[in-house]
Specification:
5 helices, 4-stranded antiparallel sheet, alpha+beta
Length: about 180
Amino acid sequence: MNNNEDIVVYPKLGKLVFFSVIFVLLGIAITYFGLTEDDGSMAIVAIGVLCTIFFGFGLIYFISRLVNKRPSLIVNDEGITDQSSYIQAGVIKWEDIKEIKLYSMMNQRMIGIILYHPENFMSKQSGFKKLLMRANQGLVDTPINIAESSLPISLDELYMIILNKWELSTREASASLED
C-alpha cells in the first residue's frame, strides 16, 4: 500500500516547559510558606511537595524531549507511531484500529483511538505505562489518546490526515481480500 508520504510531527514543548517551571516554583513557594508559618499546616507542605515533584518530573520529561528531537507522531502506510506523551503508544497498525474519534476532556482536545483487541496491546506495555493507559481507558474509553497541547499542527488537520489514511488502508485491505 502506498497512500502518499509519511507525515512526521515534531513536538511543540516551549509552553509546556515554561508552565512546568512556573508550577515547580509555585510548589516550592507553597512548601516554603507551609514550613515558615507559625501555624503552618502539614497539608499545605504536602501539597507543595506533591506539586513540586509532579511538575518537576514533567519538566525533566519535557526538557529531555527538547534535547532528544524525536518526532511526536509519524503517520504512514503502516499506521501511526505515537511518541507524543509519556504514555506513548508506539506503533499502532491500521488493521488494529477499530475507531478514531475527536473529543474533548477538561478543555483538552484529543484524538482517541479504539482498538479491536486492546488487551493484546496493553499486554505489551510496561507496568506504570499500562496502569496509566488503563486509567485513560476508564475515563474516556480509548487506551490511546493524542493530545493537542504538545503538537504544532491543528488537531482537526491531524485528525483528518489520520482518518483519511486509516480509511484508505481499510478500503485497500478489503479490496485485497476480495481478489
